[in-house]
């Protein structure tokens, strides 16, 4: 195993801030104690906004520096892992670059938290700029993109409130080894004018792996393969938020279906992406790219 990955939502975000912080610290300590390198990103529940929604003044919600310290700093302390201020992560292998986007990237605006992060999937303009630079520096490597939520839905509509379409268009431009300028609107912290140049890169996008929706799905939009994984914790068959996908497994504590995870293999010679599921997951999915 070359790498351990967590696609975010390490916690439910509904507990007292001190307890959520403790859980995040303990989870990251587990990754740090192992011998296998890791990439752990942030989900839309990790800012504790589910707890804060029920409190006056949204008290108990985390400011960005909390997860910068608890989640992204341990990633950055590893050799060979580059982490931006916004939580974009890059790790290289001989024929493959893995890029992890933070799709719960909601900066402060005028020093204040302007959005409920639990309800706002987004990539800031600053992270988008670093994403374009990460794609530019790929060289001959192929790219596997990971994030908590996908940039686009199956119908081609944005899955993020801010910059989902922009992420997708950069991936398209990368596959065409193109250059140009991308306009992302005028919204503070998310809008801007981004110049990109992928003419020196010869790699391809292997796929875009994400979670968030508590199901599995594979779809292609403009040549980009989106692959959704069932990254759902066990909630119980009759829980109101349990998806049809998870009800099929009748997940129970103490049984393999308590868990849901995947072993991901990328064969750059055969141009093959393979996903081997365990627990509440499909056993084998394979895709040419």
TrEMBL record:
GO terms for molecular function: hydrolase activity. It comes from the Bacteria. InterPro entries: Calcineurin-like_PHP, Metallo-depent_PP-like. Residues 5-214 form the Calcineurin-like phosphoesterase domain. This is Calcineurin-like phosphoesterase domain-containing protein. It comes from Lacticaseibacillus paracasei subsp. paracasei Lpp41.
């Amino acid at each position: 195993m070359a790498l351990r990955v967590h696609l975010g939502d390490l916690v439910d975000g509904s507990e007292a801030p001190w307890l959520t912080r403790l859980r995040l610290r303990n989870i990251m300590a587990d990754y740090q104690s192992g011998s296998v390198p890791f990439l752990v990103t942030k989900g839309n529940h990790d800012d504790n906004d589910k707890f804060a929604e029920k409190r006056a003044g949204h008290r108990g919600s985390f400011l960005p520096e909390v997860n910068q310290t608890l989640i992204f700093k341990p990633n950055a302390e590893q050799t060979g892992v580059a982490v931006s201020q916004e939580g974009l992560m890059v790790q290289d292998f001989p024929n493959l670059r893995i890029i992890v986007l933070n799709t719960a990237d909601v900066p402060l605006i005028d020093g204040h938290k302007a959005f409920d992060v639990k309800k706002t999937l987004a990539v800031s303009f600053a992270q988008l700029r670093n994403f374009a630079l990460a794609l530019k520096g790929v060289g001959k490597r192929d790219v596997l993109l990971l994030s908590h939520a996908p940039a686009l839905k199956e119908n081609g509509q944005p899955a993020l409130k801010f910059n989902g379409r922009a992420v997708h268009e950069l991936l398209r431009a990368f596959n065409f080894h193109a250059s140009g300028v991308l306009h992302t609107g005028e919204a503070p912290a998310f809008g801007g004018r981004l110049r990109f140049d992928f003419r020196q890169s010869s790699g391809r996008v292997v796929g875009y792996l994400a979670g968030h929706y508590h199901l599995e799905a594979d779809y292609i939009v403009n040549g980009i393969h989106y692959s959704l994984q069932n990254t759902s914790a066990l909630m119980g068959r009759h829980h109101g938020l349990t998806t049809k996908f998870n009800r099929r497994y009748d997940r129970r504590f103490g049984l393999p279906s308590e868990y849901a995870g995947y072993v991901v293999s990328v064969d750059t010679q055969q141009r093959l992406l393979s996903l081997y599921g365990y627990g509440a997951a499909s056993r084998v999915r394979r895709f040419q790219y």
